[in-house]
Specification:
It is a single chain. A two-stranded antiparallel sheet has the order 1-2. Helix 1 runs parallel beside helix 3, helix 2 runs antiparallel to helix 3 and helix 3 packs antiparallel against helix 4. The protein is mostly helical.
Length: 185
Amino acid sequence: MATKRKTASSAAPATAPAAAAVAPVFEAPVESWADTILRTNFASVEQDSIVLLQAAGALLESDSPDKVTVTLDQNLKLWIAIKTVLLNSDCPVEPEVKANLRNLAQYVVSTTMLATQGAIETAKLVSLARLNMNIAEGLLSGHRNRMIQERAYQIWEEDGRPEGREQEHWLRAEAEVSGLFKAQS
């Protein structure tokens, strides 16, 4: 199933009669997803993940040409913001991850540009949504692993830096961090 994407040439004429019923237009969030990424510099894992998940949800819920148009535009701006932040030397993302995210940003741009040619397959919207969800999950997973690593190091130091107990320290740290995540849910 393809969803027609409104373009400038397919939009309703500007001289439509005032008495005609006009369908409500889908509106973007007050602070755009791109604004959030630019503000956080891709350094606030929780906020960045939430933004990516919101964009994914909006893509999946786009059930009209107006919604598809607005959501694709907002998602494109989100990924342009991600790509912009990745070019910033202050961005805390590792170089290899930066390169992968830049490649994904290019995929989002090319997929979205295809949609401007008239129609986008529902499968492409789902693909873009899954991409956002997977990146959000990866951000959270990486953040969780860093927390475990830091806590395991603290435990190792607290125990007097003993040799051969790395796994014990890791498992203890993992349990503590998992407890923190459960308490936050």
